[in-house]
Amino acid sequence: MICENCGARTDGGSPFCSNCGSRLGSAILVQTEVETLPRRHVPAWLWILGPILLTIILLLGILGVGALGVYHGLQERAQLTREAAEEHYARGLAHLEAGEVELAIAEFEFTLHLMPDHQAAREKLREAQSRLETKATPTSEVRSRAVDLLYTQALELYRAGKWDEAVVKLDQLRSVDSDFRREEVENMLFTALYKQGLYLVAENRLEEALRYFDRALEIRPEDQDTVTQRRLAALYLTAISYWGADWEKAIIGFTTLYNLDPEYLDTTERLYEAYVSYGDVLAHRYEWCAAKRQYASAVLIKFSQEAEDKRISANWLCLTSTPTPVITSTVSITQQVVGLPMGKLAFSIYNQKTQTYDVFVVYAENLRWVKLATNADQPSFRPDGGRLAFRRLNSDEPGLCTKNIEGNDEICIHPSPGAAWPTWSPDGMRIAYVLPDEKAEYEGAWLIYSFSADGSGEAQLLAKGRSPAWGAEGWFVYNGCDDNGENCGIRAFREGMPWPLLLTRSAHDIALSFSPDGKEVAYMSDVGRSWDIYVVTVPEGQVRQLTNNEAVDGLPVWSPDGRYIAFISDRDGEWGIYLMNPDGSEQRKILELGKVLPNWEMETLSWSY
Asked: The domain that contains 70 carries what CATH number?
């Protein structure tokens, strides 16, 4: 039968859908569809052996391969069901031997519910029913005493939290006298059924739990807690039935469950493993781009370096194995997309689960990733690449910190939560940063300070502005305005100058990055239709635009050898890091950053040897 609500198949043994938990109304019979197996590559030498061997292989494939995949997907569930059935069968034997015929019948019926082909339980059920039929009809006095005794026993078991035994006694009580304290007994029975269902869920005996939830819903069909618990159990059983046999369907099932309750049993771990396993299957087929997406989904569910390494490798192979055609006026050539060409690149990735940023460093060699700092952003390499400065977020000690590139020896050098955009001096001895100017006469004003990189000494005020950058030729640039908050733009000065030079004229010319020779500054601005990348010469102030589209292009940074500019963009619908030549040519995506980058304009990229 199929459920009218979700379209899933059900065996009809329950009034509720085993997939979505909805009550079944009318249903129609459907024929079982036979899934076709994917074609497998047959080595050439097998064809030489002739049609006989080929026929044998095909028969084995038809009879064995499909069944084997399904078996692995269902074996865990089937094993649990067999164990539960044997446990209830043993209980039935014990009750029958003790003369507790009604209890024995209940246990044998439950055994057959779990395993309909359990012949021993079927024979014992007939024996118990026969014994029950031969019992003499009790007198009203005997009947009354039996009811009182059953109620007392049920109440004792109920209060002791022995829900399964309480259910059996309450069922016996209702079979002897269905009107005895009807409302009280019904309430006790509902609670015992629901509680036993929860107990069985905790024991991962979900098939049994469904039976108890079904019975509880027969008493209170609209109870939302029971409906929810039944749906979760049904979804889990459906998802686990595809385990190892169909990873796509397993992912769909556990994703639905994860969105409802990520803490349900081992749902989070299962979803993570399903993504990684499916990624492995795709990687084995050399479908690197599809594999990358599965590994990326796994990392978002639960970060692990193993999955992240697989994602990086798949991402690299996806990019390098897919040629991008470049059309000229006369010929069509193929340009190979490449990854990070040199050194190491630091950037921040937003973690949607923790709702904060983490700082990563990716190395050109093998495209290896390292998470250098959690709950942090705005990374900045020391010029020699040996140490990284960054901003701590939402922690007990917010402010600016530095860390050895090997991931140890962290030093927090500025405790102010408002400190931002750290940048190193060319000699690596000082760090410039910005703080909000609370005394300014206009909103959005900043002050730029510098202090010793080891955190010692007093901070020195350098300028009024934001987005600072130090250059190799002694130039210091930033975006600043006059005292009235007007005449804003990129300003540049160096020692000995009476006042800074104004190179551009927009308060939104920010994210400044010096070229290695100190003669040009890359920056982003929204003076056009959207955020784009520009370059201005120092001190001449000659500007050229490098990107021009309706998407976001921002946060430029020069490569240490001056041959490339990296930047971020959402031009293909998702955030990523792109590369281009200093003249704006050969723009291509090299790394993925995900779909969400809140307050992206506050972030930074940093590139070093």
From this structure: 1.25.40
Number of domains, the chain = 3
Neighbouring CB atoms inside 10 A of 255's CB total 17
312 near 575, Cβ under 8 Å?
no
Residue with tokens 């209980």: 91
413 and 478 inside one domain: yes
User: What are the distances in angstroms from CA 8 to CA 66, 224, 250, 268, 277?
Assistant: 21, 21, 14, 23, 25
* pTM for this predicted structure: 0.52
State the Cα–Cα distance between residues 523 and 123, nearest whole angstrom. Answer: 83
At 88 the pLDDT is 82
- Tell me the residue type at 371: K
Q: Are residues 604 and 497 in the same domain?
A: yes
Asked if residue 147 is part of any domain, the answer here is: no
- Work out the pLDDT band at 36, boundaries 50, 70, 90: very low
CA atoms lying within 13 Å on the CB side of residue 279: 27
Tell whether 267 and 339 lie within a shared domain.
no
Residue 507 located in a structural domain: yes
Three-state secondary-structure class, residue 147? helix
Residue whose token pair is 């082909």: 117
**Contact call for residues 437 and 446 (beta carbons, < 8 A):** yes
Based on the fold, state whether residues 398 and 271 are members of the same structural domain: no
Question: What is the rounded distance in angstroms from the CA atom of residue 320 to the CA atom of residue 324?
Answer: 10
Q: Alpha helices, DSSP H only, in 261-324?
A: 267-284, 288-301, 305-321
What are the phi and psi torsion angles at 373 (to 5°)? -155, 135
Evaluate whether residue 40 is within a structural domain.
Answer: no
Q: Are 403 and 507 within one domain?
A: yes
Q: Are both 426 and 462 inside the same structural domain? A: yes
Which CATH number do you get for residue 464?
2.120.10.30
**Residue 62: other Cβ atoms inside 10 A:** 11
Bridge partners of 576, per DSSP, are: 569, 592
Predicted confidence (pLDDT) at residue 34 exceeds the cutoff of 50: no
Where does the pLDDT of residue 211 fall: very low under 50, low under 70, confident under 90, or very high at 90 and above?
Answer: very high
Query: Which residues have CB under 8 Å from 59's CB, separation 6+?
Result: none
Question: Cis link prior to 539 (omega < 30° from 0)?
Answer: yes
Q: Tell me the two tokens of residue 366.
A: 């093998």
Domain hosting 315: range is: 246-322
What residues form DSSP beta bridges with 544? 535
293, 322, 351: which is the final residue of a domain? 322
Is 239 part of a structural domain of the chain?
A: no
Helix/strand number for the chain, H first, E second:
14, 26
Of 291, 322, 353, the residue that ends a domain is 322
Q: Residue 387: left (phi > 0), alpha (psi -120 to 50), or beta?
A: beta
Tens digit of pLDDT for each residue in 250-288?
999 999 999 999 999 999 999 999 999 999 999 999 898
CA distance 579 to 485: 34
Distance CA 589, CA 319 (A): 8
d(CA 3, CA 524): 55
- Both structure tokens of 542: 């000659």
At 472, phi and psi to the nearest 5? -70, -25
Which neighbouring-strand residues pair with 537? Answer: 520
* Structure confidence by residue, pLDDT tens digits, 304-326: 889 988 888 887 777 655 443 33
Q: Which of 555, 575, 576 is nearest to 513 (CA)?
A: 555
Please indicate, yes or no, whether residues 525 and 427 belong to a single structural domain of this protein.
yes
Q: Are residues 392 and 271 in the same domain?
A: no
